[in-house]
Amino acid sequence: MFKESNESMRFRRIVWLVLDSAGIGEMPDAAKWGDAGADTLGHTIELEKPLLPHFQKLGLGNIRSIAGLPPSDKPQAAFGKAAIFSNGKDTTVGHWEMTGLITSQPFPTYPDGFPDRIIKPFIEAVGRDVLGNKPASGTEIIKELGPEHVRTGKLIVYTSADSVFQVAAHEEVIPPAELYRICETARRILIGRDQVARVIARPFMGTPGNFQRTGNRKDFAVPPPGITLLDILKGAGLATFGIGKIPSIFNFTGFTDQMEAHDNKQSIDQTIYALASAQEGLIFSNLVDFDMLWGHRRDTKGYASGLESFDRRIPEIQGSMRKDDCLILTADHGCDPAARGRDHTREYVPILVFSRSLSGGVHLGTRETMADMGQTVAENFDLKIPFGTSFLQELKS
């Protein structure tokens, strides 16, 4: 409940922090997606036994039984989990649902590479041949094909388990501005049944054996198909800070401020920086390393280490918050590092809601949709989004 029984109190700033891919166990339909038994947090914690004292105090172990993470007797946060209502299990679908948009048709993926109906028009439109055209790790494919790309000028095209069309090029062979134009061309070609969630420019530098991706990545996302929580907040004159990959997921719409960050550390740093400057509104941040570096690469040790690193910074985030601030910790899907393959996994996502104005310990149960979080944010500011049921009053109970 609200401390001091201030039922009318509202949060002036809400920090919504997404641990990208940190699912908390299989959904009932997981087997239909090939994800029976998936449990990103459960398997990682059980196998690697990371030290997570601050997660434990918040109540992560109260959401459900997790071997190696006991429940707290007095959890600092409200706790629960949410289902993915949408037809999908990826970053775009997850974040859109959080903000009130439900996806009925999943974005296409290409486990065998892109078919001729995509590649041939792309080659013709950009005037360059391609290398690769297969699912691959971004760091591995530039190691494999980078020398030939530098020698021939051919584009490195690849995908992943996600719905993405990625183009890698050495900055001294194809400058970033030209690579962006190439990706814009791909975005125009990828429509209809081939409308992938994101086209991504992946510039790199260096020499054979020492190629390194640069910070000039640029995403060309599908625009959200409707008004999101972010548009509504911004339209009401509230601040909307997008940190890290968040703005690109929404095709850079609905934000008053966009803050660059390329990894977990930078995203946390920028979140804390935003807390020092935002007056009223939403700070929306994504910790991409859990998905990109450890989930897809099936690295349980890395995932556990990442959880420990974030856990150590939880007090720093809490210390940057005022009494009338609120922190929501969640995920957007699963990517179980103990599972087979390299795809996302169809899982519930955790919900932890902390504020120094709340007593904590409220059990939010299993929510039907991640949009319940977005509706809670909206109600806090006397607004409403198209989908979801707010749990704001439950936090006050």
Structure characterization notes:
The chain is of the alpha/beta class. The chain has helices at 40-48, 53-58, 60-63, 91-98, 116-126, 138-152, 176-189, 229-235, 246-249, 264-275, 289-295, 300-319, 371-380, 392-396, and strands at 13-19, 78-82, 130-135, 155-159, 164-170, 198-205, 212-213, 218-221, 239-243, 257-259, 281-287, 325-330, 349-354, 363-367. It has two domains: 3-105 and 223-396, Alkaline Phosphatase, subunit A (3-Layer(aba) Sandwich); 116-221, Alpha-Beta Plaits, CATH 3.30.70. Helices cover 33% and strands 19% of the residues. Strands 10-9-11-1-12-13-2-14 form an eight-stranded mixed sheet, sandwiched between helices. Strands 3, 4, 5, 6, 7 and 8 form a six-stranded mixed sheet that branches. Helix 1 packs across helix 12 (300-319), helix 5 packs across helix 7 (176-189) and helix 10 runs parallel beside helix 12. The longest helix is centred in the last third of the chain and has 20 residues, at 300-319. The model is unreliable at 1-7 (pLDDT under 50).
Top CATH class of the largest domain:
Alpha Beta
Low-confidence stretches: 1-7
Strands in their spatial order, largest beta sheet: 10-9-11-1-12-13-2-14
Tell me what the CATH architecture of the largest domain is.
3-Layer(aba) Sandwich
CATH superfamily of the largest domain: Alkaline Phosphatase, subunit A
Radius of gyration: 21 Å
Question: Approximately how much beta-strand content do the residues carry?
Answer: 15-25%
How far apart the termini lie comes to: 5 Å
- The total beta strand count reads 14
* Main sheet specs: 8 strands, mixed
Helix content: 25-40%
Q: What is the mean pLDDT?
A: 95
Domains (count): 2
> What sequence of helices (H) and strands (E) makes up the elements?
EHHHEHHEHEEHEEEHEHEHEHHEEEHH
What is the fold-level CATH name, i.e. the topology of the largest domain? Alkaline Phosphatase, subunit A
| Tertiary shape | globular
| Quaternary assembly | single chain
Tally of helical segments: 14
Could you say which structural class the secondary elements and strand pairing correspond to? alpha/beta
